[in-house]
Protein backbone atom coordinates (compact mmCIF):
# COMPACT_ATOMS: atom_id res chain seq x y z
CA UNK A 1 0.00 0.00 0.00
CA UNK A 2 1.51 3.35 -1.01
CA UNK A 3 1.20 6.57 1.03
CA UNK A 4 -1.90 7.77 -0.85
CA UNK A 5 -3.74 4.45 -0.46
CA UNK A 6 -2.78 4.45 3.22
CA UNK A 7 -4.03 8.04 3.64
CA UNK A 8 -7.40 7.08 2.14
CA UNK A 9 -7.82 3.98 4.28
CA UNK A 10 -6.49 5.07 7.65
CA UNK A 11 -9.03 6.03 10.34
CA UNK A 12 -8.84 9.75 11.09
CA UNK A 13 -10.43 12.63 12.95
CA UNK A 14 -11.48 15.88 11.31
CA UNK A 15 -11.16 18.91 13.62
CA UNK A 16 -11.48 21.90 11.31
CA UNK A 17 -14.66 21.85 9.26
CA UNK A 18 -17.17 24.71 9.15
CA UNK A 19 -20.41 22.85 8.67
CA UNK A 20 -21.81 25.76 6.62
CA UNK A 21 -18.78 25.27 4.36
CA UNK A 22 -19.95 21.75 3.53
CA UNK A 23 -23.08 23.09 1.82
CA UNK A 24 -22.74 21.94 -1.80
CA UNK A 25 -24.27 24.12 -4.57
CA UNK A 26 -26.84 21.39 -5.35
CA UNK A 27 -28.09 21.43 -1.75
CA UNK A 28 -28.07 25.26 -1.69
CA UNK A 29 -30.47 25.22 -4.67
CA UNK A 30 -32.61 22.44 -3.17
CA UNK A 31 -32.97 24.34 0.13
CA UNK A 32 -33.60 27.64 -1.68
CA UNK A 33 -36.49 26.00 -3.52
CA UNK A 34 -37.82 24.31 -0.38
CA UNK A 35 -37.77 27.61 1.54
CA UNK A 36 -38.69 30.05 -1.23
CA UNK A 37 -35.35 31.86 -1.01
CA UNK A 38 -34.24 33.72 -4.15
CA UNK A 39 -30.56 33.28 -4.96
CA UNK A 40 -28.29 35.75 -6.76
CA UNK A 41 -27.21 32.99 -9.18
CA UNK A 42 -29.48 31.40 -11.83
CA UNK A 43 -28.03 27.85 -11.63
CA UNK A 44 -25.76 25.42 -9.78
CA UNK A 45 -23.19 25.91 -12.55
CA UNK A 46 -23.29 29.70 -12.28
CA UNK A 47 -22.85 29.50 -8.52
CA UNK A 48 -19.96 27.06 -8.77
CA UNK A 49 -18.34 29.30 -11.39
CA UNK A 50 -18.26 32.11 -8.82
CA UNK A 51 -15.97 30.01 -6.59
CA UNK A 52 -12.77 31.71 -7.75
CA UNK A 53 -11.32 33.32 -4.65
CA UNK A 54 -8.44 35.75 -4.30
CA UNK A 55 -8.29 35.89 -0.50
CA UNK A 56 -10.27 35.01 2.63
CA UNK A 57 -12.75 37.90 2.34
CA UNK A 58 -13.66 37.09 -1.27
CA UNK A 59 -14.61 33.61 -0.06
CA UNK A 60 -16.47 34.74 3.09
CA UNK A 61 -18.80 36.99 1.06
CA UNK A 62 -20.02 34.00 -0.99
CA UNK A 63 -20.01 31.61 1.97
CA UNK A 64 -22.34 33.82 4.05
CA UNK A 65 -24.65 34.27 1.03
CA UNK A 66 -24.82 30.47 0.56
CA UNK A 67 -25.86 30.01 4.21
CA UNK A 68 -28.93 32.23 3.68
CA UNK A 69 -30.97 29.22 2.49
CA UNK A 70 -30.81 27.60 5.96
CA UNK A 71 -34.03 28.36 7.83
CA UNK A 72 -35.53 25.27 9.46
CA UNK A 73 -34.03 22.64 11.81
CA UNK A 74 -34.39 20.11 8.96
CA UNK A 75 -32.15 22.28 6.74
CA UNK A 76 -29.35 22.24 9.33
CA UNK A 77 -29.84 18.51 9.79
CA UNK A 78 -29.71 17.81 6.04
CA UNK A 79 -26.54 19.89 5.59
CA UNK A 80 -24.74 18.08 8.42
CA UNK A 81 -26.02 14.67 7.32
CA UNK A 82 -24.62 15.20 3.82
CA UNK A 83 -21.26 16.00 5.44
CA UNK A 84 -21.35 12.89 7.63
CA UNK A 85 -21.91 10.69 4.55
CA UNK A 86 -18.78 12.23 2.95
CA UNK A 87 -16.85 11.78 6.20
CA UNK A 88 -17.84 8.11 6.31
CA UNK A 89 -16.62 7.59 2.74
CA UNK A 90 -13.24 9.09 3.74
CA UNK A 91 -12.82 6.92 6.86
CA UNK A 92 -13.29 9.86 9.23
CA UNK A 93 -14.41 8.21 12.48
CA UNK A 94 -14.55 11.31 14.68
CA UNK A 95 -15.25 14.95 13.87
CA UNK A 96 -15.52 18.24 15.74
CA UNK A 97 -17.73 20.59 13.73
CA UNK A 98 -17.64 24.38 13.74
CA UNK A 99 -20.87 26.28 13.32
CA UNK A 100 -21.44 30.04 13.00
CA UNK A 101 -24.67 30.89 14.88
CA UNK A 102 -24.40 34.64 14.25
CA UNK A 103 -24.74 34.03 10.50
CA UNK A 104 -28.18 32.62 11.24
CA UNK A 105 -29.46 34.53 14.27
CA UNK A 106 -28.73 37.82 12.44
CA UNK A 107 -31.29 36.65 9.80
CA UNK A 108 -33.89 35.88 12.45
CA UNK A 109 -33.23 32.13 12.68
CA UNK A 110 -33.52 31.06 16.34
CA UNK A 111 -30.48 29.58 18.12
CA UNK A 112 -32.66 26.53 18.93
CA UNK A 113 -33.23 25.86 15.20
CA UNK A 114 -29.49 25.90 14.47
CA UNK A 115 -28.34 23.81 17.41
CA UNK A 116 -31.19 21.30 17.46
CA UNK A 117 -30.90 20.67 13.71
CA UNK A 118 -27.14 20.09 13.88
CA UNK A 119 -27.29 18.12 17.11
CA UNK A 120 -29.91 15.78 15.65
CA UNK A 121 -27.63 14.98 12.72
CA UNK A 122 -24.71 14.33 15.11
CA UNK A 123 -26.77 11.80 17.09
CA UNK A 124 -27.89 10.11 13.88
CA UNK A 125 -24.27 9.91 12.63
CA UNK A 126 -23.29 8.09 15.82
CA UNK A 127 -26.09 5.54 15.61
CA UNK A 128 -26.25 4.98 11.83
CA UNK A 129 -22.65 5.57 10.73
CA UNK A 130 -20.60 4.96 13.88
CA UNK A 131 -19.07 8.46 13.63
CA UNK A 132 -18.61 10.29 16.93
CA UNK A 133 -18.84 14.06 16.80
CA UNK A 134 -19.08 17.27 18.78
CA UNK A 135 -20.08 20.86 18.01
CA UNK A 136 -17.90 23.95 18.50
CA UNK A 137 -19.65 27.33 18.43
CA UNK A 138 -17.61 29.95 16.55
CA UNK A 139 -17.79 33.68 17.18
CA UNK A 140 -17.51 35.86 14.08
CA UNK A 141 -14.50 38.08 14.77
CA UNK A 142 -15.59 40.88 12.40
CA UNK A 143 -18.53 41.46 14.78
CA UNK A 144 -18.22 43.10 18.20
CA UNK A 145 -17.28 41.70 21.59
CA UNK A 146 -20.78 42.65 22.73
CA UNK A 147 -22.33 40.60 19.93
CA UNK A 148 -20.15 37.61 20.92
CA UNK A 149 -21.28 37.90 24.56
CA UNK A 150 -24.93 38.05 23.45
CA UNK A 151 -24.41 34.97 21.26
CA UNK A 152 -22.86 33.06 24.17
CA UNK A 153 -25.82 34.03 26.34
CA UNK A 154 -28.31 32.85 23.69
CA UNK A 155 -26.46 29.52 23.36
CA UNK A 156 -26.17 28.73 27.08
CA UNK A 157 -29.63 27.08 27.29
CA UNK A 158 -28.11 24.53 24.84
CA UNK A 159 -24.81 24.19 26.75
CA UNK A 160 -25.10 20.40 26.64
CA UNK A 161 -25.07 20.41 22.83
CA UNK A 162 -21.63 21.98 22.24
CA UNK A 163 -18.23 21.30 23.78
CA UNK A 164 -16.39 24.51 23.06
CA UNK A 165 -16.01 27.80 21.26
CA UNK A 166 -13.87 29.05 18.39
CA UNK A 167 -13.13 32.27 16.55
CA UNK A 168 -13.45 32.63 12.79
CA UNK A 169 -14.22 34.98 9.86
CA UNK A 170 -12.05 37.95 8.70
CA UNK A 171 -8.76 37.67 10.59
CA UNK A 172 -6.66 40.73 9.74
CA UNK A 173 -7.77 43.75 11.78
CA UNK A 174 -9.64 41.53 14.27
CA UNK A 175 -6.91 40.17 16.56
CA UNK A 176 -7.62 37.58 19.27
CA UNK A 177 -7.20 40.24 22.00
CA UNK A 178 -10.57 41.69 20.88
CA UNK A 179 -12.20 38.58 22.44
CA UNK A 180 -10.05 38.11 25.54
CA UNK A 181 -12.94 38.71 27.97
CA UNK A 182 -15.38 36.51 26.02
CA UNK A 183 -12.91 33.63 26.04
CA UNK A 184 -12.19 34.15 29.76
CA UNK A 185 -15.92 33.72 30.42
CA UNK A 186 -16.07 30.62 28.21
CA UNK A 187 -13.13 29.18 30.16
CA UNK A 188 -14.99 29.71 33.44
CA UNK A 189 -17.92 27.82 31.90
CA UNK A 190 -15.65 24.85 31.22
CA UNK A 191 -15.83 25.17 27.44
CA UNK A 192 -12.95 24.01 25.23
CA UNK A 193 -11.23 26.90 23.45
CA UNK A 194 -9.86 27.12 19.90
CA UNK A 195 -9.27 30.04 17.51
CA UNK A 196 -8.33 30.65 13.91
CA UNK A 197 -4.93 32.36 13.91
CA UNK A 198 -2.07 32.70 11.47
CA UNK A 199 -4.16 32.00 8.37
CA UNK A 200 -3.77 35.47 6.79
CA UNK A 201 -2.73 37.13 10.05
CA UNK A 202 0.80 37.36 11.55
CA UNK A 203 2.50 35.07 14.10
CA UNK A 204 1.61 37.68 16.76
CA UNK A 205 -2.06 36.66 16.41
CA UNK A 206 -1.02 33.08 17.22
CA UNK A 207 0.85 34.29 20.34
CA UNK A 208 -2.27 36.24 21.35
CA UNK A 209 -4.47 33.16 20.88
CA UNK A 210 -2.12 31.18 23.14
CA UNK A 211 -1.32 33.81 25.79
CA UNK A 212 -4.54 35.86 25.96
CA UNK A 213 -7.30 33.49 24.84
CA UNK A 214 -5.55 30.41 26.29
CA UNK A 215 -6.67 28.22 23.42
CA UNK A 216 -6.11 24.47 23.36
CA UNK A 217 -5.74 24.34 19.56
CA UNK A 218 -4.96 26.80 16.80
CA UNK A 219 -6.87 26.63 13.54
CA UNK A 220 -4.56 27.05 10.51
CA UNK A 221 -1.36 28.43 12.08
CA UNK A 222 0.61 28.44 8.83
CA UNK A 223 2.18 31.80 9.81
CA UNK A 224 4.17 29.94 12.52
CA UNK A 225 6.94 29.27 10.01
CA UNK A 226 7.81 33.00 10.08
CA UNK A 227 8.66 32.87 13.81
CA UNK A 228 11.33 30.40 15.06
CA UNK A 229 10.50 31.09 18.71
CA UNK A 230 6.84 30.29 18.07
CA UNK A 231 7.81 27.06 16.24
CA UNK A 232 9.86 26.01 19.30
CA UNK A 233 6.95 26.82 21.63
CA UNK A 234 4.43 24.89 19.49
CA UNK A 235 6.75 21.87 19.34
CA UNK A 236 7.51 21.97 23.07
CA UNK A 237 3.85 22.21 24.14
CA UNK A 238 2.50 20.02 21.30
CA UNK A 239 -0.08 22.76 20.68
CA UNK A 240 -2.18 21.28 17.87
CA UNK A 241 -2.56 23.10 14.55
CA UNK A 242 -5.57 22.20 12.40
CA UNK A 243 -4.07 22.81 8.97
CA UNK A 244 -6.22 22.99 5.82
CA UNK A 245 -4.06 22.56 2.69
CA UNK A 246 -6.69 22.92 -0.05
CA UNK A 247 -8.18 25.93 1.75
CA UNK A 248 -4.76 27.60 1.86
CA UNK A 249 -4.36 26.94 -1.86
CA UNK A 250 -7.84 28.19 -2.86
CA UNK A 251 -7.55 31.34 -0.71
CA UNK A 252 -4.07 32.09 -2.08
CA UNK A 253 -2.34 31.70 1.30
CA UNK A 254 0.08 29.52 -0.68
CA UNK A 255 0.58 29.86 -4.45
CA UNK A 256 1.25 26.18 -5.02
CA UNK A 257 0.59 23.13 -2.82
CA UNK A 258 4.28 22.25 -3.25
CA UNK A 259 5.06 25.39 -1.19
CA UNK A 260 2.77 24.36 1.67
CA UNK A 261 4.54 24.27 5.08
CA UNK A 262 2.83 21.08 6.37
CA UNK A 263 5.90 18.85 5.89
CA UNK A 264 8.13 21.39 7.66
CA UNK A 265 5.66 21.46 10.55
CA UNK A 266 5.80 17.67 10.91
CA UNK A 267 9.60 17.65 10.66
CA UNK A 268 9.77 20.30 13.41
CA UNK A 269 7.74 18.02 15.71
CA UNK A 270 4.52 20.04 15.63
CA UNK A 271 1.15 18.39 16.24
CA UNK A 272 -0.14 19.33 12.77
CA UNK A 273 -3.32 17.78 11.38
CA UNK A 274 -5.00 17.78 7.94
CA UNK A 275 -8.56 19.10 7.59
CA UNK A 276 -10.95 20.28 4.88
CA UNK A 277 -12.14 23.68 6.32
CA UNK A 278 -14.95 24.43 3.80
CA UNK A 279 -14.91 21.38 1.54
CA UNK A 280 -17.82 22.40 -0.72
CA UNK A 281 -15.95 25.59 -1.64
CA UNK A 282 -12.30 24.48 -1.68
CA UNK A 283 -12.45 21.44 -3.92
CA UNK A 284 -12.46 18.50 -1.60
CA UNK A 285 -13.17 16.64 1.60
CA UNK A 286 -10.66 14.93 3.90
CA UNK A 287 -9.24 12.36 1.50
CA UNK A 288 -8.85 14.91 -1.29
CA UNK A 289 -6.83 17.04 1.13
CA UNK A 290 -4.68 14.05 2.11
CA UNK A 291 -4.20 12.79 -1.45
CA UNK A 292 -3.19 16.13 -2.95
CA UNK A 293 -0.92 17.00 -0.03
CA UNK A 294 0.82 13.61 -0.06
CA UNK A 295 1.48 14.06 -3.79
CA UNK A 296 2.60 17.70 -3.66
CA UNK A 297 4.88 17.30 -0.62
CA UNK A 298 5.92 13.70 -1.28
CA UNK A 299 4.78 12.67 2.20
CA UNK A 300 5.85 9.22 3.39
CA UNK A 301 3.69 6.46 4.88
CA UNK A 302 5.19 7.45 8.25
CA UNK A 303 4.07 11.07 7.72
CA UNK A 304 0.53 9.86 6.96
CA UNK A 305 0.42 7.72 10.11
CA UNK A 306 1.75 10.68 12.14
CA UNK A 307 -0.97 12.96 10.72
CA UNK A 308 -3.70 10.46 11.62
CA UNK A 309 -2.19 9.96 15.09
CA UNK A 310 -1.99 13.75 15.56
CA UNK A 311 -5.68 14.12 14.64
CA UNK A 312 -6.68 11.96 17.61
CA UNK A 313 -4.10 13.51 19.96
CA UNK A 314 -5.46 16.98 19.02
CA UNK A 315 -9.11 15.98 19.44
CA UNK A 316 -11.19 16.62 22.53
CA UNK A 317 -12.13 12.96 23.02
CA UNK A 318 -11.29 11.39 26.37
CA UNK A 319 -7.98 9.56 26.79
CA UNK A 320 -9.99 6.34 27.12
CA UNK A 321 -11.89 6.88 23.82
CA UNK A 322 -8.66 7.94 22.09
CA UNK A 323 -6.99 4.64 22.93
CA UNK A 324 -10.00 2.78 21.51
CA UNK A 325 -9.91 4.83 18.28
CA UNK A 326 -6.19 4.78 17.43
C1 LIG B 1 -13.29 30.22 7.22
CL1 LIG B 1 -11.16 29.46 5.73
C2 LIG B 1 -11.92 30.37 6.97
N1 LIG B 1 -11.21 31.26 7.68
C3 LIG B 1 -11.83 32.00 8.59
N2 LIG B 1 -13.12 31.90 8.88
C4 LIG B 1 -13.85 31.00 8.18
N3 LIG B 1 -15.15 30.68 8.25
C5 LIG B 1 -15.38 29.73 7.36
N4 LIG B 1 -14.25 29.44 6.70
ZN1 LIG C 1 -11.62 27.59 9.14
Short description, anyone?
With 326 residues, the chain is of the alpha/beta class. It has helices at 3-9, 25-35, 44-49, 56-66, 73-89, 101-105, 111-129, 145-155, 180-188, 203-211, 228-237, 245-250, 262-267, 279-282, 286-297, 301-313, 319-325, and strands at residues 12-18, 92-99, 132-140, 164-168, 192-197, 217-220, 241-243, 272-274.
Q: What helical percentage do the residues reach?
A: 40-55%
Order of strands in the sheet with most strands:
1-2-3-4-5-6-7-8
What's the SSE pattern? HEHHHHEHHEHEHEHEHEHHEHHHH
CATH architecture: Alpha-Beta Barrel
User: Between the first and last Cα atoms, what is the distance in angstroms?
Assistant: 19 Å
Shape: globular
Average pLDDT, all residues: 98
Which small molecules are bound?
A: 6-chloro-9H-purine, zinc ion
SS content category: alpha/beta
The radius of gyration over CA amounts to: 18 Å
Taking pLDDT < 50 over at least 5 consecutive residues as the criterion, the unreliable ranges are none
Number of strands: 8
The CATH topology is given as TIM Barrel
Number of helices: 17
- Total individual domains: 1
Function: Catalyzes the hydrolytic deamination of adenine to hypoxanthine. Plays an important role in the purine salvage pathway and in nitrogen catabolism.
Cofactor: Zn(2+)
InterPro entries: A_deaminase_dom (IPR001365), ADE (IPR028892), Ado/ade_deaminase (IPR006330), Metal_Hydrolase (IPR032466)
Site (Important for catalytic activity): 220
Amino acid sequence: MNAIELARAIPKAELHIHIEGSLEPELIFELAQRNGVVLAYPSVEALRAAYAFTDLQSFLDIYYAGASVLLQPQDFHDMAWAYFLRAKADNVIHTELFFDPQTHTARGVPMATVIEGLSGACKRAESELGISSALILCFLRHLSEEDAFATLEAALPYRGHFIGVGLDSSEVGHPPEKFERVFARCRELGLKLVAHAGEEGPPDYMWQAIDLLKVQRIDHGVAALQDPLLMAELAHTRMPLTVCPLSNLKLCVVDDLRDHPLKKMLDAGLCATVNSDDPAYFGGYMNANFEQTVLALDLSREDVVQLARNSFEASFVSEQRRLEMF
